[in-house]
Design brief:
The complex is a heterodimer of chains A (about 350) and B (about 575). By secondary structure, chain A is an all-alpha fold. In chain A, about 70% of the residues lie in helices and about 0% in strands. In chain A, helix 8 runs antiparallel to helix 11 (about 240-255). Chain B has about 575 residues and is mainly alpha-helical. Helix content of chain B is about 75%, strand content about 0%. Chain B is built from 22 helices and two strands. A two-stranded antiparallel sheet of chain B has the order 1-2. The chains are: A mainly alpha (about 350), B mainly alpha (about 575). At the A-B interface, helix 1, helix 2, helix 5, helix 6 and helix 7 of A face helix 2, helix 6, helix 14, helix 15 and helix 16 of B.
Chain lengths: ~350, ~575
Amino acid sequence: MSTEPTDADGMEPGFLTETAGNTTRERLVRAFFFVCAFLSVVTTFAIVFTLAFEAAKFFGVTGQLLGVSAEKTVAAVEFYTGFEWIPSRQLFGVLEFVSATLAIVVGSSIIALPFGLGTAIYLSEYANPRMRTYLKPALEVLAGIPTVVYGYFALVYITPALDGFFSAVSRTVPLLTIPDLGAFNLLSASIVVGIMIIPMVSSISEDAMSAVPDDLRQAGYGMGATKFDVSIGVVIPAAISGIFSSFILALSRAIGETMAVTIAAGQQPNLVNPLNPADYFDAAMPMTAGMVQIATGDIAGQGAEYQSLFAIGLTLFVITLAMNLISDVITERYREQYE
Amino acid sequence: MMSIDTDTDTANPAETSFERVSRRKGQLFRWLLLIASFAGIVSLGVLLVYVFIDALQPLTADAIWYPVFLLTVVAPIAGVGLFYWRWAPSAGSIGVTLLGLPVLGLMATGATFVIVTDVLGSTTWFGFVVALGVATGLFAGFGRVRPDASFETRFVVGLFLYWFALIGLPSVPIPFTNLATVEFLPSLMGAITSLPVVPTRWAALFWTLVVPVGAGVTSYLAGHRPRRTALGAGVIVLGAALAGGLLAAQVGSSLAVGELVVLGTVVPFGLMIERYRVAETVDRRDLRAGLALPVAVIGGLVLNAVLSGVLGIAGPASWLDWQYLTNAPSRFAEQAGIYPALVGSIMIMIIVVLLTFPIGVGAAVYLEEYAPENRTSRLIRINISNLAGVPSVVYGLLGLGLFIRLLDMGLGSILVAGMTLSLLILPIVIISSREAIRAVPDSMRQASYGMGATRWQTVRRVVLPEAMPGILTGTILALARAVGEAAPLLMIGTATTAFSVPGSFTDTASAMPLQIYAWSELPSESFQHGVVAAGVVVLIVVMLTMNSVAIVLRNRYQTRGES
């Protein structure tokens, strides 16, 4: 047996004798693993730095400090309160994009929240184990289909189908005039975004419902409650924090969703009212679609329009990050503790 | 609200009416839940049926084609399926495996072939493999000669060997001249590729792929079979590949294609049969029954093709055909193809795999096995879960600002695309790898430490092998997500349409989802309901293949964990 720590590869004696934990190799390996893990922190800093730095060149207040001439910057107030986005006239009002994003959020949540919640209740309370093993992977497929494909579905199949349906309804039902559905519209974009975030709502909500202890259900049944009573009156209130955090996460996904809304909702800025159903029949440009349009346009430019890409991106990042953090806080703080 | 309902019900004199009303409400609720659960899946299913019909155009064939197809392809498969279902349930999974592996092998060798011949060029590939092989051989030889060399010595020797094999003495720019570089000493790889005599394409593939695979088969079999059998099997692999090449050359394809088709199908098929024969749990009769499915499918398809050819029957005029897979995009729908985008996607994925797998697994190992319970570790953990929620388009901005603006790497190059997508899926890979590593029972680690193993030895020999199926499952699922991502690629200026195959990893290229995006903006009917539909089908088939591989891996892993 050698006294020197020998290599372990393929040699059993070495495998047994090498005990020192701080040989060069152990330290090297540990350092490599640490760098891998630390890379994620670096990524976060890089995201924040990149977005903030480029956005700072866009806003007037900070742009001067970075040596950007005043004509090429935009006042932050103008950016966050303006309703018009016409870069050629130096109008950078992000609210025009935000209104469309909000419309997508409202529209998709009308689909995803009830359907996702229903799915979660079914999976956790009603489905037998066999059904669950088939249903859960099938639901995951909904989230796994590329968003480009969803956009194509909305543009080529859903919009014409809805158009035909609405015009048929308009013709047959008197006193009901439904506006024409544009080739690009918020309605079908909202529908596909809603479908793709159903699994987010259902899987996280179901986890929360499955975590509700059986004692509570048994107590409900013992008092003569039906399965319906137990689901609505016991399980949902007990799992409410998980359900809310699933809603928030799903909506943050809807806000960041890009390709489906770019393809289906169109490429022209349009101020919409998210609470007015008629506005869903028109094309509009959510924040992400706006970013795609700017990026695929004149990307070589260093002007305000190029920098505005990062300003929108920063806004998007802050909103989604805040929503994720809120959802984390809700699950951590308001989780019902059962012993 | 509930209590009010029941109150009004119980106010009724008859108790039966209370029961009936409650049950109806419960039944209604149950049905609503069922509808909610299936609404998304069913609507997606309907859309998929539409897109498959658009892409494949199944109604455009000759009338006689349908009965022929039914008899030669559908009927045998249905018969075999019925047989499995009715009489040999355990043979079914064997049959599917024996059919699925060659199909996967074919896809993998197809990707390899494209990269080796169309992108790198077979000479570069040959030089790369030979140089790598020589360096590895020398390194192993050093280990033999000096078995007691310290780790530091081995590290330096290894670095030296691989450096000279692949990089050589680096090119140095000469100041104040236009002569950009001078090479002091070319690498071994460079020396081989600049030789006046280089092997032809089929020979390069033979030496770099067929021979190593044959050697691998031999060494695998030598573990449990007589030496002579193992050697014979290796020789058979070489012979079969050559025979396949000659056969392919006879029917108008090339030697290289035939070689790889045989390598990708016959070898995995044979190895799987060998594994089943060795496994004690598999019944010989089930194995024989399992062979029926691949025979029925392949035989049926060949018979159908031959019959259609002889009788002159025209099949459906699908948009998705061989020409679509091998053509460049075109203004004319009939000639449009997805080949450059397909190659671009494969190359981006190569970068993504090379980056995410080591880094993701490394980060997971650190967090699960090494990390002390302190602020830094907690920060890293929280950070990773938050990174997973950042929209993909923001990662695109990161790539644009960091890789392209700051580091000045080429706008829209494959390398930048791969690095950006790697950053995007790294959190997912890390999270799933951590779960897989956490599932390894602690008793195994304790046993390893008890034998005096160091932490790295424990990680390498005990934890990683045990967690590998779970890690692979998570990684493949994350890769499937990366294949379909388009938004980050648009941000970093990747071309939405590429007409030629990229020549290297620093070239710009398109990717399948980007090509679909570009095409979907064309208003013409033949694009919207034809070319794009075919592209969507290709993308979905690729993703579903990756997903099913991941699910099969997970299921095998779970059943093993329970036993």
